[in-house]
Amino acid sequence: MKQLVILSGKGGTGKTSVVAAFAHLASAGPFAGQVILADADVDAANLELVLHPKRLDTEPFRGGEVAVIDEDQCVQCGDCESICRFDAIVETDAGWIVDPVACEGCAACVHQCPTASIAMQEQTVGEYAYSDSLYGPLHHAHLYPGQESSGKLVTEVRQRACRQALDEQRPLVLIDGPPGIGCPVIAAVSGADLALLVTEPTVAGLQDLRRALQTLRHFGVPALVCINKADVYPVGAQGIDAYCRANGIDTVARVPFDPSVPGAMVAGAAVTAYRPDAPASLALSAVWQQVVAVLAKDLPGAAPAATVGDAARNNPD
Amino acid sequence: MRIVVASGKGGTGKTTVATSLAQVAAERDAVRFLDCDVETPNAALFLHPRLDVHRDVGIRVPRVDPQTCNACGTCAEICRFNAIAVVGETTLVFDDLCHGCGSCTWMCPEQAITEHLLVTGSIDSGTTPDGIAFARGMMNVGQAMGMPILRELKKSSPALSPTMTVPPRRTLEIRDAPPGASCPVVETMRGADFVLFVTEPTPFGLHDLKQVAAIARELGLPAGVVINRDGIGDAAVDAYCVESDLPILLRIPMDRRIAEAIAAGSTLVEANLDDRHRFRALLERILAEVTV
């Protein structure tokens, strides 16, 4: 089983549109019926808006515990406020309370409270879902607005997707990654077989691509790069090409700016299904072929075969 | 007054709007700009601050003195993050898992634990050519937790140095939020006076806007919306704004020339002088919304 994760660093470069196109393309070729889908962007889960999943199973996700002050026992000494390093203890007219969003769940206040008035309480911070989608089984989740533990929820989604792939001997797990480079990204990529970075030819896109590539290298995940909306700023696209070449990373394709992409989003469809002959669809089909070719090589886990592996192990500066 | 620019969905134009808003505000106000997207901060690419103050930040992780430690295991027991383990007579600390809460240090019966700064990122600050006091947090690659850096950034207050000849009308702080709708977005909004949502008129933009709008509502913050790339999608964002009582304060049309200018590192108001008037009006609308 292989895990392909779509990432970007910068948000809004087209990750989900690429994943939807890949899911559609995979449903027809040699991968038909072979793919498990996972949406690892749990605080902005958009894949379902184009895959129209039918929910088969939903479970609450308990992200951890937060401190709660028992107001009857509390003597208002304020010790907890001074020891909390997360600014989570707040004074109100009704006395000291814990801001559950700021609370890190460390329980330091529980141990330091002189009157033992603080206890930890488990909380539900989101829900995990398993669905049947247009292009295969989909594992996804929703983190409730403002919650933490998104990394844990991402891990949960990925583990369930991989377990199903192993059980049913499906060779590919296709993962829609979150933006950024922190906890949820690490949860989405660590141990994946290949990452496709979707970037855009802007000064911000390149800066974030660089940080995403450094993160992938840190976790030993090989990477390919695809430049979306490449014709909007050709100088920027050349800059990305040059950067990738200098760091031994393959840029697999350029996808042109194409109004069919937002059009497909509004229609709630993969662009390759919505307008198969649109310039973006043709380019994405070519990207998919290249990615399949790379995945088809025998990549033993995170220590991949020659071209891609050597590329990814090089130092992005 | 503190204004947060947030979006939910990434790439809708938060930094584009925040930087232009800061530039027009700096014409009459003393402006402080905080780039709160510590994973992928980009505002400096547009505002060009001279970042002359650098500070390493991170979390305080425990170090166990092997001479004093009697391997009683109290620290491992109370640590909620499994960052400490006692193996035989040795107490091991896993820095990567530590949240820096300090609980083990206080609870050690032998007082065998001291704390050291584990650097997980940095804060750089300085002044932009427009006289904006600028600071950004930057998380180091490979780190998982941006929150400690963000908390430090909010406390950093880079020195104000407005360039106008008359005294500034007021002090404004503009915070460029990270994407998503989880805890770093909440932390960015905490203590703010107004949230400006930048969205695009697509189902993705709308879905994620609803997520962040819920946070602002929970925090009791007034908010308004900028619709970017107006015309690329549908009218569902408009309908949502009406039914949720969110004023639409500005529309930025989908225009390839704008996209090109931003790609090259210009701000909107630099790329198109007409936008200066539109952003001045936007700022006044925001001020009016807050004072209502």
UniProtKB/TrEMBL annotation, chain A:
Gene3D superfamilies per UniProt: 3.30.70.20, P-loop containing nucleotide triphosphate hydrolases
UniProt-listed SUPFAM superfamilies? 4Fe-4S ferredoxins, P-loop containing nucleoside triphosphate hydrolases
Q: What is this protein called?
A: Cobyrinic acid ac-diamide synthase
Q: Which chain positions lie within coiled-coil regions?
A: none
List the Pfam families hit by this protein, alphabetically.
Answer: CbiA, Fer4
PANTHER family, alphabetized: 4FE-4S CLUSTER CONTAINING PARA FAMILY ATPASE PROTEIN, MIND SUPERFAMILY P-LOOP ATPASE CONTAINING AN INSERTED FERREDOXIN DOMAIN
Q: Where is the 4Fe-4S ferredoxin-type domain?
A: 65-94, 97-123
UniProtKB/TrEMBL annotation, chain B:
> What UniProt keywords apply to this chain's record, in alphabetical order?
Iron, Iron-sulfur, Metal-binding
Q: What is this protein called?
A: Cobyrinic acid ac-diamide synthase
User: Which PANTHER family does the UniProt entry name for this protein?
Assistant: 4FE-4S CLUSTER CONTAINING PARA FAMILY ATPASE PROTEIN
Q: Where is the 4Fe-4S ferredoxin-type domain?
A: 60-89, 90-118
| Keyword Transmembrane helix in record | no
Q: Name one GO molecular function term.
A: iron-sulfur cluster binding
Record bears the keyword Iron-sulfur: yes
InterPro entries, A to Z: 4Fe4S_Fe-S-bd (IPR017896), 4Fe4S_Fe_S_CS (IPR017900), CobQ/CobB/MinD/ParA_Nub-bd_dom (IPR002586), P-loop_NTPase (IPR027417)
Q: Which PROSITE patterns match?
A: 4FE4S_FER_1, 4FE4S_FER_2
- Annotated organism of origin: Thiocapsa marina 5811
